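User: Please predict the structure of the protein below. I'd like the answer in structure-token form so I can feed it into my own downstream comparison script.

Assistant: Understood. Taking the following sequence of 324 residues as input:
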Amino acid sequence: MKATARAHTNIALIKYWGKRNESLILPANSNLSVTLDGFSTETTVHFQEDLKKDIFLLNEQNVEGNDLGKVAVFLDKVRALSGNEIYAQVQSVNHVPTAAGFASSASGLAALAAASAKAIGLSLDDTELSKLARQGSGSACRSIYGGFVEWQMGEREDGADSFAVQVADRSHWDIRIAAVVLSKTMKKVSSREGMRRTVETSPFYAGWLEQIPKDLQEIKQAIADKDFEKMGSIAEANCLRMHATTLGANPPFTYWQDTTMRVMQTVQSLREQGVPAFFTIDAGPNVKVLYLPEDEDKVKKRLHSIEGVDDIIISKPGNGISYL
């Protein structure tokens, strides 16, 4: 009763921001991401008859408290599906900075879902696995698939129609995503708390939701047509609108740092000089820059010149779940 799975993180091009149901993790809007080959989590789940409780090791360190609790609650869902009340040892290796806007929860919960389901003997297809992963972390449902992925919000109250589908596989389009690392420290406002506060208090939130269907339709067409400038401009505008909602929240907050702004301005400067590059930022200070392979040297050189940039990690569209 043991299995190991690898999942990659993803970066949302059309953001997931806000829930219509907190407990089932049902999003207020459909959203779209690209899976990244540069960041991943490998998780081994071993269900054992002699264990008296779940055990969680992250990067070889024993984890207790809230983080262990989250894993145990998720494993309860897996146990309920299988009808087997057996505890597990979970060992995860995270190749992602945790809680810094790099979607570590997406790869972490996707890998946990895949490994635990396989270890306990469940035969889930990708749709069922996506629904299961969603109940641990919303963005994890997208990391079941590689390439470009849409999380369909669904309409049902029980969440049965809220899951991810692949829009285009990783081989469809050779683009690059530079993850610009400004801070590896944990953010002060978690994604979950930031969403809740924005939905409940920001007067800008309704306008954000209103624009999503148009953004989503147009970006899917841009991906199908491999229209890089159209895709990039939609993703960048969608990102800015999402972050604007946080400034309208009560109390207001932002995930950006001064270096975040410098990276954004550098990307805009590159465009003015004829280099098609666009930025997007999830719930954290770190910036992801979209560009084409032929412009890699120019983009990397400019990004490395920015004061406050710790590292740059280059990704291509990545794979979905794999078993090791």
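That's the full token string. The chain is about 35% helix and 25% strand.
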